[in-house]
Amino acid sequence: MTLLLDLLAFGVGGAIVAATLTSVIRTFVLPRAASDWLTGKVFAVIRRLFNLRTKKTKEYATIDRIWALYAPLSLMALAPTWMTLVTVGYTFLFWAAGTKNFGEAFTLAGSSLLTLGFARGSSLLDTVLSFTAATIGLILVALLIAYLPTMYSAFSRREVVVNQLAVRANTPPSPVEMLLRFHRLDRLGQMAEAWVEWETWFVELEESHTTLAALVFFRSPQPDHSWVNAAEAMMDAAALRLALLNLPGDKVGGLLPSGIRVPTDANAAIMLRAGFVALQRIAVYFQVDYNPDPNFPEDPISITQSEFEQAAAVFAKQGLPIKQDLAQAWQDFAGWRVNYDSVLIALKQITIAPPTEWLGNR
Q1: Where residue 259 falls among pLDDT bands split at 50, 70, 90?
Q2: Least C-beta-crowded within 10 Å: which of 84, 178, 234, 274?
Q3: Which of 219, 222, 178, 221 is CA-nearest to residue 198?
């Protein structure tokens, strides 16, 4: 009976340690999108606390200031959570190895894991367990130290481009305002550089925000900036360019199977696709329910035809060349927007993004 209890305790302890290390590997080491139950629970519990704290707060600047602490605190909470679980696991292991007092087994496990060395076992198995616990403790600390610079490097690259958008598209960013500013600079026909830059940004965003998922919740230094809003502004600007503008050199093309006209600006179309693919894969990581093959008008979008027509009127008033068939232009725009509308709204809710004005501050 005693042997059976020892084996059971050893199995429970080993399972706890193995499950915790698996969580560490999936969160810190695995170079691909892999959600982890334990990490997700830590973030979810802390999110509930933040929701309670901001439930009655009305001013967005205050909400943003509070939520700016959410991702860092959640990350910092992972280390003690893992340490606690590994300590509990090793407590069972030391108990099974012969330390039959749970208090002494817990002290031995904690001393070994934190490499304090004030408690020592008496058997060879105790020594082996102490060495493995100390190794795990050092690995956990080393991984956390190495993880943070990698995360902040990716965050910095993301925010540089987001901040640049404030100059191009106002704050909060507006796709309408962006195209107007390029028109005033007589650069509407030379936007290829911007489309290529943001295509690269979306590719990096997909990779970093699924392998380092906590980045999704890291907020911009400025309360009215948001990577989700920036993504929306650029994608909508590209959709407006393709659907509504009629620049010199544009060719009239036929319809694609989706009902959208053949793109007149290949770089804008490629950037758009890179954008909604990135957002969809981030949404998959966070288990957002969406239609992977949407079709307008069966799948509605959050931008109304009235807003689209207002944008067209603003463009016409400012002298931008727009297409004559606004009904077809609206169908083309909606055909692009439907690919990312639902996931965009979901990510805005997840990240508590600041409110935006689609037409800009006009």
Answers
A1: low
A2: 84
A3: 178
Which residues face 255 on adjacent strands?
261
User: How many beta carbons lie within 10 A of that of residue 41, not counting itself?
Assistant: 12
Per DSSP, 255 falls in state B
Question: Any idea which of 72-81, 145-154, 188-197, 253-262 has the lowest mean pLDDT?
Answer: 253-262
Question: Is 272 in contact with 336 (CB distance < 8 Å)?
Answer: yes
309, 233 contact by CB (below 8 A): no
> Do 342 and 298 form a contact (C-beta atoms < 8 A)?
no
Taking alpha carbons only, the member of 241, 226, 153, 229 closest to residue 194 is 241
Residue type, 219: R
Q: d(Cα 229, Cα 344) in Å, to the nearest integer?
A: 9
| The model's pTM | 0.86
Amino acid in position 291: N
CB atoms within 10 A of CB 179: 27
Confidence of residue 10 (pLDDT cuts 50, 70, 90): confident
